[in-house]
User: Fold these one by one.
Assistant:
Number 1:
Amino acid sequence: MAQYTPPLRDMHFVLHELLQVTDTFKTLPAHAEVDVDTINAVLEEGGKFASEVLAPLNARGDAEGCSLDAATHEVRTPAGFKAAYDQFVEGGWPSLGCDPAYGGQGLPVTLNQCLYEMLNSANQAWTMYPGLTHGAYECLHAHGTPEQQQTYLPRLTSGEWTGTMCLTESHCGTDLGLLRTKAEPQADGSHLITGNKIFISAGDHDMAANIVHLVLARLPDAPTGSKGISLFVVPKFLINADGTLGERNPIFCGALEHKMGIHGNATCQLNLDGARGSLVGQPHKGLNAMFVMMNAARLGVGMQSLGLTEVAYQNAVAYAKDRIQMRSLTGAKAPDKAADPIIVHPDVRKMLLTARAYAEGGRALGVYTALLLDQELSSTDEAVKKDAADLVALLTPIVKAFITDNAWISTSHCLQVFGGHGYVREWGMEQFVRDARINMIYEGTNTIQSLDLLGRKVLADNGAKLKKFGALVRQLIEDEGVNEAMAEFINPLADLGDKVTKLTTELGMKAFANPDEVGAAAVDYLRVVGHLVFAYFWARMARISLDQQASGDPFYRAKLATARFYFAKLLPETAGLIRSARAGVKPLMEMDEALF
Amino acid sequence: MAQYTPPLRDMHFVLHELLQVTDTFKTLPAHAEVDVDTINAVLEEGGKFASEVLAPLNARGDAEGCSLDAATHEVRTPAGFKAAYDQFVEGGWPSLGCDPAYGGQGLPVTLNQCLYEMLNSANQAWTMYPGLTHGAYECLHAHGTPEQQQTYLPRLTSGEWTGTMCLTESHCGTDLGLLRTKAEPQADGSHLITGNKIFISAGDHDMAANIVHLVLARLPDAPTGSKGISLFVVPKFLINADGTLGERNPIFCGALEHKMGIHGNATCQLNLDGARGSLVGQPHKGLNAMFVMMNAARLGVGMQSLGLTEVAYQNAVAYAKDRIQMRSLTGAKAPDKAADPIIVHPDVRKMLLTARAYAEGGRALGVYTALLLDQELSSTDEAVKKDAADLVALLTPIVKAFITDNAWISTSHCLQVFGGHGYVREWGMEQFVRDARINMIYEGTNTIQSLDLLGRKVLADNGAKLKKFGALVRQLIEDEGVNEAMAEFINPLADLGDKVTKLTTELGMKAFANPDEVGAAAVDYLRVVGHLVFAYFWARMARISLDQQASGDPFYRAKLATARFYFAKLLPETAGLIRSARAGVKPLMEMDEALF
């Protein structure tokens, strides 16, 4: 069975050495008191919960899956899931990043992000239940009426109730403008909602007393398309005036999806048959309200894949040190054994280091983005807020798509390290691959992320947001340009920065002539910019590690070696990606649809 | 459920237009009579069997899997598998490529290869049963004693019995030198074999009357390591002197593996407890004998992944034409519908064309390699035999690793085209991905293939085999260098050819100084050479298609468009791969093992 050790040392490095998060927290009144000791204590406890309570349930949850009682429409989660959730609630974990006005601990997003990486390493399917709850909390916190907030936020904060987001219908996922679920206004101001939703994660289960569904539907007078969609909060059990649970609302699980992975999460078809809900935000502006939840969810998906990359790496390393097979081509390394441990073989190391470099790069990016989000949410300086918001907007699709694509590559490599043993359930590696695959799809496919990045975040404002990130890169290049020891990192970073600038300009020009040029280049473009972002963080991490070489702490030797690996073996991918991006739209569109 | 249509038109193109296989067959006395009509008739019938009989069993076989009766140690295959196998045997399909001396039809490997592509598209898990049987047939045909051949070959040819290859033990897969299974010589010349094998595909089942296991084991006087391994044939039921089945041999399935995919194939742990077998080939030379089987199996694994790429492509295209979602960025293409079919979106096309280009390129390479194998096996001209054998040796690891890696990319892209619907079982796409994953592992992992290519096939003979392929490339460049219409294909092909030459020389030099340089570069190198081979075939296919543009046949328009896509969007990957390969071994080896 797979093992998991929380990567606390690397988290400390990212939080305290690379980003010095407490310096930023001191500028934010809401978080000024959050010090290093608090952060580290929370992470240590969270890591214990992840590794001791959740990780042992992961393979079991995958094998057992969820089940639906066709008579009662109740969903049962795998053995142990509810007990673990009770423990999570008792520990106060759901409230970590929530508003003290509703019983939350008011800690920074940054800390919650690190917690979620660990929970996802241990058990992504389980973590989706509280993860979606936090999304529902954020949406109602931003857009709910005072009454809705009073009714729902304390219970979502405590974890007593969980949440979902009900967007997809069988005929529409990406294109929500097509959705058909209807909301009929009632005399008392509530709405009766009727329709069929699919792919609803954590859509029904036995872990909490109530489920707070956030449902997209159309009002009778709605314009067609995406501008006629409203958002409603629809509880599984109606809530009495005294706060107790009332009658069952007719929103029932009709079937569970049989999926490639995340078997422990109940992915439901939900049938609403006049379920009572109340409007959240303005009529017909449901997508705006939902996007609060969606953006948080996209960062969350990045953390899911970061978690899987980390845990797959850890297990592959352990196996590669233990498994003996063949001799090193440079002579026996373990002459006392019948063969050498496979970690002596260069390609095994390449697979391991790929996962390691993507995990550590992803952690730097994920925590950095969360820190920006804390500034966006909590800064009292409008200029800081604006800059942070712009960078969050730019980086969100990269966190989502680049980290999830990297996890697909990394978990597959880690499986490969096990050879045939990676393909069987026993070691847990193939589950990581199967679980990782969904992250490239939900909360906006990775193609949608790339269109969001190139079309909306970069070209739509003439590269203004990209230039804000570019300024950070340029600053680093200026600061380190004279440092000879940094040349191996700064030169390729500067080179890639120039190429991204040129590529962006070129694509902008082409897009004027033909909007399909954006769609043709976007996926390659996102990966190139993702590498620019990673190269920036790897250069900064290398700088810190170079400074610390004299300390003798092996952590910094490993960090420096991983940085060198990243620049030598992973960054070069950009050479091909840029060529492909520049090849343009013609090779994609010239074939008639009928000829496919 | 997934659909499948045999790609007969493209097979005809590859066989008759690209490779003109009957011209080669005419030079081989054994196949001189095999004409176009025969070939096409066989493929049409084989395609019918695949699409009508096997394809409908694929998803069911995945859901049901195999089961082991713990009391009897008998394995049951999914519903319908045995009936389909009976029909396969009745149709004479197992005998297609077998020796007429044992009841075979004596048709070329080339034809069998095309048949197997289709069977694998329809149902890889099922196809492994006859696939392994054919491997056992080839091994005994090459190395069996006359008595063994008389006993086993007629029944393997007819399909009445099936075969396995029993190599792996729990502590050794890649490194067979470590294996422990023992063979004790008996007074009657037979051997009693004792040991435990794992991961034995088609290791036990209810589809055939007997199973012919080819088992690697050590004789008492065996030297240690890989030079002390002998091969034995061990039937599930002993065979009486009159050819009837005798008592059950103690080779029992102890457990079935729970795998990521190919659930319909029984992957067995086999326990041999003094099972009676007879030596195949020379004592201690078992690996040599097994390699006959292994090389055929490697080509077979390439065909498995080619089949999966093709069927995933077909289903993704059908979905992309049918599913409506969003409008084209260049304006509505289906204004009468609520949205445009997703095939209008450039990145959807990119994913589809990636699978298409890899399928069609893989088919050209797979059939070409099979044709060379026919020359190696059946030519009466020693020089032709030698050239063919050299090219087969060079191309086998490419067929195995490049096609299976491409299938992993392609099936994942095709899943992605379906969005969330690709992640659920219903459409069958996620099964293709899960099934494809094993192909990168078994019959020698793709890392092993790459070491075989760079170390043994290229550097060990100073590039002599590679130069034979290079001569074909150079001939094409000379022939087409003056053809302006071909410049878009010939220029990048020539450029890549030069780069491969330089890279090979550079790696050869480095390998002198440090043998680990081979292991560090091999995986990148194989992918670069794989692209060189594909670029060569795509250029030739483009040439034929250019010549046929005036015919108005849309097949050639599609082929030309796919060639252009390949050169514009897939070949550029080589730029990054070459940089990574040249970065050498240091970034992989400088980190101490303890720091991982």
Number 2:
Amino acid sequence: MTHTPAIILVAPQLGENIGMVARAMLNCGLTDLRIVNPRDGWPSDHANRASSGALEKGVIARVFDTTADAVSDLHFTLATTARPRDMIKDVYTATSAMETAHAKITDGQGVGVLFGAERTGLENEDIALASAIITIPLNPDFSSLNLAQAVLLVAYEFMIQGDKTPDKQFMTGKTDIASADTIDQFTGRLIDGLSDNGFFKSPDMRPTVERNLINLFARQTWTDQDIKTLQGVLSSFIKK
Amino acid sequence: MTHTPAIILVAPQLGENIGMVARAMLNCGLTDLRIVNPRDGWPSDHANRASSGALEKGVIARVFDTTADAVSDLHFTLATTARPRDMIKDVYTATSAMETAHAKITDGQGVGVLFGAERTGLENEDIALASAIITIPLNPDFSSLNLAQAVLLVAYEFMIQGDKTPDKQFMTGKTDIASADTIDQFTGRLIDGLSDNGFFKSPDMRPTVERNLINLFARQTWTDQDIKTLQGVLSSFIKK
């Protein structure tokens, strides 16, 4: 049992699509590929080429005769369908399905996601085997997603469940974030330079203009490198 | 200004990839495609074919000479890169970038996302123009995503920001969720049938076994149709 969901392709037609699925899986760290009754047989040169190496570098593909065989060791299987069918079943968004999958896998359960053939999708007999349904909310007027793209979205949603990347990081490269003191030295020098230039026409206005300039620089995030660059720019003007 | 982010392809090579980008965009409801200096010219038959109709059915493609021209009317632009560069900039995940984009668009701002050429990605000069960076956290050992797939993930993340689909819905088809009373009638009849059959060997055990059976059915969600099916099954066994 791997620690990622199995991707189960039911009766896929083109080897090329299976290869692209393998590539999308490995992009997101998934490695358990199960192929039920592939129309053009297996192994497939078309699949190998389209996988960009994914079938050699990590994805393990196995072939099964029936969907029931392919899901037999799993505890929770999800069927992907473009539109709800007349079937009694829980329907998840891709996000919540993979949140649930992540929790179940952490709990030691095996999870799989079923994808139907290109064009036709899953048969009702396959959907009946699944614990629940995933429907990806796409543009209803243009919802045809190819097989590898549907797998990519589901695999991506799984991958980001476990991802610890902060929502937003300030990347400073080799420099550090400038302290208030560093910024203050710059704005102080800027204001002195402007004062020497006769920028403050009226003494009454000076406090307001000073405050605006201080605020203008204070509300952004600067690095030491940024302030060094701006100090150089300022020096050039002051000399002139 | 559209109410979705502009997708800006900088120096894309293959018309086919531009078409697949248009298809992925429209799948997610995005329509503003900007192409900077496409290698093979524009319009492109390859693009039209690969777009599966997206370029006729909603996506509006415009060509620009420079990245600066393509972003000139936008207020917030994000550059996609596979790995952080030595540049001072905010780095978002795709999710948080599109949360931010959604908030800014709701606020009336124009948002764009820059994608570089196949293989080479964005030049540092293009990244310097952007407000911030998006890095999609992929499998570091196998991170090559094709252009349309990268666009799909970003467009999908934008689309689900505004999506109101509940995380999980119980789809009952034409039937309704069974009430406790309906389930109780079934379990009562089941227990009576078992009792008539001599299932309860020891009177001491009966309360525990009854409670287990009641719990077994109570903790699942059933529809009226499910219970009708199970009642039919039970009738068949009781008759026999």
